[in-house]
Amino acid sequence: MPASANDLTDAEFHRLYGAWAGRGPADVATLFADYGRPWWIAGGWAIEAFTGVRRAHEDCDPSILRTDLPRLRRLVRGRYDVWTATRGALRPVLDLTPAGEEDLPEACGQVWLRPSWDQPWEYDVLLAPGDARTWVYRRDPSMTMPMREALWRKDGIPYLQPQIQLLYKAPGLRSKDQADFDATLPLLDARQRAWLAEALRRTRPGHPWLDRL
Fold first, then answer.
1. How far apart are CA 119 and CA 51, in angstroms?
2. Which of 4, 47, 203, 212 sits at a 20 to 30 Å CA gap from 94?
3. What is the helix (H) or strand (E) element at residue 179, kind and residue range?
4. How many C-beta neighbours within 10 Å does residue 211 have?
5. In what order do the strands lie in the sheet with 89-92?
6. What's the pLDDT tens digit per position in 170-195?
7. Inter-axis angle of helices 162-169 and 190-203, nearest 10
8. Cα–Cα distance between 188 and 199 in angstroms, integer?
9. Can you count the helices (H) and strands (E) in the chain?
């Protein structure tokens, strides 16, 4: 039995939640052109940008700071409805409620955007802790890094560093996560490998990727 929406097959997900539109990093850059706050691409697109290895993508995962949700809502007002996605449960974030942190269920780590109920979802926006100067690991807030070091750019688009993205992928060990690790590992420099190894020892002792790091 699937434990979460992430464990569903594409067919099961579409039946329950609806389809995702085929958006990519260039679309996100256009959407966030006037945003004026930190944002970056995470997930599989961040891995593909780093490795150059093409892969399938169910959705696109832009990330913003959790405290900047009100700014995101202002940016997309009139274009997209904003829904909280928490443990498989979806709920619209309505303009009738106060904007900001109090709108979100405590465990909510992302919001989904779509133009209306009868159209595909377009963006899965991850809500990150931390601030404009500091990246914070959501699963262990004691792990931090200067934001300028946590991100890198390609064609003007900011992406999450590959070693950080692999840390987020490590708990799942889905076939696509393993494929991303296999494609990324040979391209990591010594500093990136050391950081990922230490992060895994700290958060996932005994993880199978440690033997290869």
1. 32
2. 4
3. helix 175-184
4. 7
5. 89-92, 81-86, 110-114, 123-128, 61-65, 39-42, 157-160, 151-154
6. 998 889 999 999 999 999 999 999 99
7. 30
8. 15
9. 8, 11
State both tokens at 198: 């230490």
Beta strand pairing status for 123-128 and 61-65? parallel
**Cβ neighbours of residue 89 closer than 8 Å, sequence gap 6 or more:** none
pTM: 0.89
Q: Is the pLDDT of residue 99 over 70?
A: no
Question: Look-up: residue for tokens 């498989």?
Answer: 88
Which single residue is written with the structure tokens 């958006």? 23
Please give the single-letter amino acid code of residue 104. L
Query: How far apart, in whole angstroms, are the C-alpha atoms of residue 128 and residue 136?
Result: 7
Q: Are 165 and 145 in contact (CB under 8 A)?
A: no
